[in-house]
Amino acid sequence: MPNKPSAIDFPSKIGVFWNSEPWPILDAQSMAREIESLGYGSLFMPEGNGKDAMIESAAFLGATERLVIGTGIANIHVRLPTAAESGARMLTALYPGRFVLGLGVSHAPFVEGSLGGAYRKPLTMMRTYLDAMNSVPAELERGSRPTRLLAALGPKMIELAGEFADGAHPYLVLPEQTRNTRAILGDDPWIVTEQAIAIGGSAEDQLRRARSHLDLYSRLDNYRNSWLRQGFDETDLAIGESERLPRALVGMGSAEEAAASVTAHLDAGADHVVVQVAVDTPTDDPLPNLRALAAALGL
């Protein structure tokens, strides 16, 4: 592995991306322990309109022994940049090598609707936020600079992730986009790529879950534009009608076939891949799929 700009000690190259917000925190902590026991190296969680991803991260770090915990992503519209930086430094000081601060600009409908904020130029917003994070005095938890990853889909945000952060956290991308991200970033910055899977049940059931997983994202400009850049067209983005997009982005079939979709990102230049189980509802248990995948990956 190349020399990285900051130290993260992943116990394995495959982790988990899981929306823990709908789960009671004590149950979520039990899930984190189970994920660790299966041999996965990380647990990344999103931040929507519910729980604070920084507090969730502290809960998961305290409940596990080696599992790396990451925000995927901490929404920059939710907290002040100085609060994000100081909180991340404290988690890094408490759990060296085990916390990753993933940051993202979110999406206009969420920011302007649910949060009542203003969604301006994403690149400018992120650059300004990172500059403000850097203004936190070095004396605060000296020596505990957190690892920062940016939710980066377009080339300019990927460049920013290499210049002003420690790498990128691609989401819902093809292995070729992971390869493109590596080409832009060069050897050193981190790439932690998300890969969705839908295994178990019939082929029709897997396709249904994959389509359901992509439905929300297909209505967000950031993802639509990302998929168009990756070679899809508008007919592919009609999730309920096309099979091309879900079959390309979601690892389906047997556990072994899904495992191949995960390792394809490692082959394309990712340092770490986080697996997200496509489920019917946010409270569905992802563990059956995660157990089968762990066995197929030899974790």
TrEMBL record:
InterPro entries, A to Z: F420-G6PD/mer, Lucif-like_OxRdatse_MSMEG_4141, Luciferase-like_dom, Luciferase-like_sf
Keyword Oxidoreductase among record annotations: yes
Gene3D superfamilies: Luciferase-like domain
One Gene Ontology molecular-function label: oxidoreductase activity, acting on paired donors, with incorporation or reduction of molecular oxygen
Keyword vocabulary terms for this entry: Oxidoreductase
Keyword Oxidoreductase: yes
Domain Luciferase-like intervals: 26-241
Pfam families reported for this sequence: Bac_luciferase
Record-linked NCBIfam families: F420_MSMEG_4141
Protein name: Probable F420-dependent oxidoreductase, MSMEG_4141 family
